[in-house]
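Office hours follow-up: a student asked to see two folded examples consecutively, so here they are.
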Amino acid sequence: MSRFAAVVAAAFILLGQVLAGPAFGASGMPAAGDRLALVIGNGRYENVAELPNPVNDARAVTAALKRIGFSVVEGYDLSFTAMAEKLKTFGRAAEKASVAVVFYAGHGLQMQGTNYFLPVDAKVQRERDLAYDAISLDMILREAEPARDLRIVILDACRDNPFAARIARAGGTTRALQVSEGLAQVGNVGRDTLVAYATAANALADDGSDSHSPYTTALLKHLETPGLEINLLFGRVRDSVFEATAGRQTPFTYGSLGGDPFYLIPPSDVSGTRAPAPGNAPEREALFWQALESSTEPADMLLYLKYFPDGPHAGEALRRLQGSGDRGKPEVAALPNTPEIPAAEPAPALPPPAPPRKPTATTTPTPAIVSIESDVPLAKDTILQRQTKLRERVSGAKEPRCATIMERAQLGEGLTDADKSFLRNNC
C-alpha cells in the first residue's frame, strides 16, 4: 500500500459513514442518504450587458458534481419565477439529503448587509426592488438547511455589477446609497454550513477572459480530488485563485463546521473501492494507526494526534514526531577561510588605590604670643628666635628697665602705652 493511499484511507475511517451516490425512488426524488446539489448560471441578462462565463461555469460544475455522485437540480439563464421554482424543488429534495451543495454564477449585490442574486429578467431600479426581483442568500440557506450532515453554498457572484450603478443614479445625491457592489459578510450561519465567496466581502471578482472565471477554474481543478477534506479543498481553491490573479482576488469562506472531517469524495483504499466504516472508536483507531504504522512523516503523526490524542499509540506518535524534528534540524557548516580574530590585548592594570590617609593627631593649641612691634600672633619658633635677639639687644642696652619690660611681655603680661613708648625710645 502506498503512503498516500494509506493516509487517505485512514482519514476516511474518521468519517464514520460513507456518503453514498444518488438513488432515486419511484417519485424521482433523491432517496435518503443521497447528496444533492442546486446549480444555477445566469449570464444572458435582458436589461444589462450579458456575462459570458456564468453559464459555462455552471454547466462544468454540474458535470463535475454528477461525476462524484451528486444528483443536481440545474438551471441556466433563469427568470425570477424559474429561479424560485428551482430553489423550491431543491429545498424539498434537501429534506431527504445528507449533503446539500448550491453553486451560483451570475450577478449579485448587497443591500443593507443582505446579499441578493439576480435572475436574467431583473429590472432593478430602486433599492426596494431587490426584495421583489432577486433571490436572497437567506432564502437559499433556508432551503438547504434540512440536509442532515453538511450544507455548502458556493457563490461566484461578485462580478462587476451594473445594477448597483443604476440604483445609485436613481437614488440621487440627497441620501447615502445602501446598495453596494460585491457581497456582504455572512453573519450567523447554521450548523455544519459553509458559504464560499469567489472573493473577499465588498470586493469584485474577475469574470475571466477564458471559458471559465478564475474561481470556477480553481474549483473544477480541486473538486474531484479524492480524499480532500472540505476545508482543505477550499483552501486550495483560494491559493489557486490568488496565484492566477496575481493577488488581485482572494476567495473567502464563512462557516460553522464541526470537528468531524467532511469529504465530497471519500478516501478510497488501494483497490479503488470506498473504505468500510468501522463500527466503534477502538476499531477506527486501530485501522487508522495500521495505515500510518510505517510512516515517520510529521504530518501523519499530527493527524493521528489530532483525532486520537489519548489513543494507545499517542506516545509512539509523539516520539516519531520529535524524532523527525531532530532529523530536520539543519547542521551549521563551518565558514571557509574565515580569518581568526586575534585576541584583544589586555588593558593596562590600574594602579592600586592609595591607602587611606591617617588622621592627623590634634594637639592643644599653644596660646598665641603677640609681637610687641606689630601685635600679630607669632609662631613658636619665631617667638624663641626673637626672644634670643631681644635678650641680646637688652644685654647691651643702657637701661635695665628694657629687659624687665620685655620679660613681662614674654610672660604674657599686658604692656601699658607707657611701657611701649619706653621700649620704642630707649630699648
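And the second, which I mentioned at the end of office hours:
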Amino acid sequence: MPVPPSTDPPLESFGPIKSLSELPIDKIRGSCPWTVSTPPLTDLRKQCSPLVFGGGVFGLGMYNPDNHLYSDEAVRALRLAFQYGINTLDSSPYYFPSEFVLGRALRILAPEFPRESYMIITKCGRYGPQRSMFDYSPERVEASIRQSCSRLGVSYLDGALLHDAEFVSDQPEQNVEDAGFLPAQAIGAPCAAKTNRTPEEAQKLLGISPEDAATIRGPGDEKVLAAVRKLFELKDQGLVRNVGISGYPLPELLRIVRLVASNPPFRPLDIVLSYSNNTVHSKLLPMYRAMFESPVGGDHWVSPLLLNASPFSMGLFSDRGAPNWHPADKDLVAATRLAHQKLKADALANPVSGIDPNMVLAQMAMFSGIQGSGKSGDAQNMHTLVGMSNVDEVHAAISVFRVLSAKDNCSYPGDPDQGEGAATLYNTLERYAKIARAEMEAAGVNELCWQSPPQDA
C-alpha cells in the first residue's frame, strides 16, 4: 500500500464532478433483499444495512488497476449499491485515494442520494504500512477527521475508528507455543493446539482476564486512550456520531474495549470492526460476541456494534491464489489451495446454475463470510463490509445475500435469486463451505490466527 501524499491532490484529479445524466443507467435486479431503513438515517446501530460498501478496494495498488480509480466505475457501483439498499460505506485515509474516489462519487450522486440517505464510517491514526506511520496524537486525530470530512464532502461522520489499534496498543507478548491458537483457547473453541490450556489460562496470557480490564500496560495504551478521548470530544461536538476501533486480533480488540470503558471518561466504544475472523478458516468473531457483550465499567456500559470485514480474508480465498504478502500460515495457504482444487473439480463435474467454476472459491467464501449479516447463522445482525469495485460485484454480493435468505424462505417481489434455483444454490454452497472447512480442520489450521502486527512492522 503506497504512503498517502503529505498534501491532498485536487478532488478533480480523480475525475470531473459530472451530472447524473452523463452516467450509464445500471438497473437493479429485483428489489432490496432486506427491509430498508427510511431516511433520515441517524442511528448506525439500528439503521445500518446488512452489507456495508467497503472502500478499501479503491486504494492504489490494492485490488484494482490504478486507472480504475480515475473512472466512473466507483460512482456507478456506489449508485447501484444505494439503489439496492446498501446505506453505509467505509473508508480510511490509509486506503488512499479511497476517500477522494468516494467523495467524488457522493458529490455526483447528491441530487439522487442526499447526505441523510446514507451513513459513512472512516478511520484515523494509520497513514502507512509501518508502525512509524501511525499517529494517534489527539491533534492528528482531530485534523485527520476534519480532513476526511472535507475529502468526502460531508459535515459529519457516522463512525470514526482508530485504524488497526493493535499496532499502537501495548498488546501482551505471546512468546509461547501455539500462540496462534490462544484466541481460540480463550473461549474454549476446538482447535489443533498442542499445548492444552484452559480458557482462563489463555485469557491471562492475552490480558483479557476480567480483573485486567482497567490495566494500562504502557505508553501505547496511553496513546490509544488519549486518541479515544479526542474522538469522544468530537462526538460531543457533533462531528462524529460513533467512536470505535478496527483491527485483526480479537483478544486485543476486546482488551481495548474493556480498557476504554474502565478508564476516564468511562465511556464505552460504539463500534468494533474486525477482519478475517468470520471466514471459512476462522469463525472466531461470532464466538467472541458474548465476551464483547459482557458488561464492564459500571452502569454506563453498552456493548459495541460488531462489524465483520474481509469475508475473502484479504484475498486468501481468491481463485487466483493468495497474494504473496498474505500473513497466513503456510499450512493454511496449502489447505486453502487443496480446498480450491476440490471445489473446482466438483463444480466442473456437477454444474449448478449460478456457480462459476472459475470463481467457485470466492463464491463459497462470500457465502460463508457474510452468514450472520441477515437472519441466519450464529452471528446474527453482524453487518459485513464487502469490497465492491464495480456494478458486477454489487450484483454478485446482493445475489449471494439473496441465496442466504433462501434458508429462511424469504422472498421479495421480482427477485431473480429466489425459489427452487436459490435453494439448490444454497445447498451447493453450503456443501462447498463444509468441504473447505473440513480441509482446514484436517490440516489443523481452523481458528489459527496470524500475528498482528507482524514482527517486521
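Two things to take away from it. The first helix runs from residue 44 to 47. The two ends are 13 Å apart (CA to CA).
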